[in-house]
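S1.2 Input.
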Amino acid sequence: MRTTKNIWIGGALLACLGSASISMASDLHIGDTIPSLKVDRWMKGTPVPRFEKGKIYVVEFWATWCGPCRQAMPHLSELAKKYAGKVTFIGVDIWEDQHSKPGENLKAKADKFVVQMGNRMSYNVCAGSDDGYMSKNWMAAAGQSGIPATFVVGKDSTLQWIGHPIDLDETISQIVNDKYDVTAFATKTNPAIDKAKGQEALGLKFYEPVDEALKANNFDLAIKAADDAMAKCPKIYKFGLAMKKFETIAKHRPGLAYAAAMKVESDPDQRWMASEVYSMTPNLDKRCYRYALAFFLEKYKDQPNNFAAPAHYAYTYRQLGESKKAAEFFQQYVDGLTKAKVDPVTLEASKKELLEFKEAANKSSN
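S1.3 Output.
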C-alpha cells in the first residue's frame, strides 16, 4: 500500500499508481466485448444498471487521492454536457484504500468528495464493488496500472478506446459520428496491452516475496526480499519495491532507518524513496530528516519554480522540529497551488493543512 502524501509537481502528481493492479487477470483488448458494470453504490447522476446495445459509454476510473483525476474531471464534465443524449459518462471510484488512514470511512470520504466537486464533476458517478471486480476485470485485464484511465464502450458493447481523459476529445467525436477506425487503434494498442500484462506477470515475481513476508509480519525478511528483488528487477518495479522497503523500515525497524538510507546513498532511486518516506514519518533519528532534506535540496536546486519543493521542505522541517520554517515553506506550496488554479478539493485540503502548520509554529514560539 502506498502511504506517502501526494505532492503536486508542475500541476501533476508524482504518480497515481495502484499497487493492487499487480495481479493476474483475464485479458481485455480493444475490440473485445466489455465486462459488466459492477458497483457498490451510485453517488451522483442516474444509475446505469447495465450497458445497452446501440449506446456509447465513457467509463472513467478515478480516486479521491489522485490529483490528475481531479484535474480531468472538469474536462469530462464539459464533454458529458457536449454529448448529452449521445454518450453516457460514468466515473468509477477505485483503489480508495491505497491512501487511507487507519479506521477511515472511505465511503463517506468519497461521498464528500463528489459533493465538494460540484459541477466540476457533472456526470454519473459510482463506486466500484468492494470485491475489486472493476479493478480486476477492467483495469488489470487491460494492463492499466494508473489512473485516471478512460475506457470507451461502443454501440456494439465492445471496447473501442483506452487512454487518458485529456486525449478523449477527437476519439469520442469520431465514435459518435461513426468515423472511428477501431481496427487501426487495436493494431497499435493491443500489443501494448499484452506487453503490460507481461510486465504484471513479471511484477508478481518480484513483489510476491515481499508481500508474503509482510503478511507474515516477518519484517526483516520483507526488507531482504525487497533488496533481493531490486538487485535484479527492471527499473519499472524499483520505486514500488523501494517504497515498501523504507516504509517497513520506518514503521517496524526505525532504529535501522538512518543506516539503511546511508547504504543506498549512491542509488538515486532508493535515496528518493527513503527521503519521501522519512519526511512523512515522525519520531525517527534526526539524521534521517537531515538526509531527506539534503536530498530534496539537491533534487530541486535547478527547479526554482517547482512548487512541490516547498512542500517537501515543509514536511521535512516539521519532522526536524523547525515549525516556523515548515509553516513558511508550506505557505509557499499553497501559494503555488493557488496560482496554478488546482481543483478546489486539493486547494481546500492544503489550506486546512496549512492551518495545522501555522498552529504548530505559533505553539513553538510561545
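S1.4 Remarks. Residues 1-15, 19-24 have pLDDT under 50 and may be disordered.
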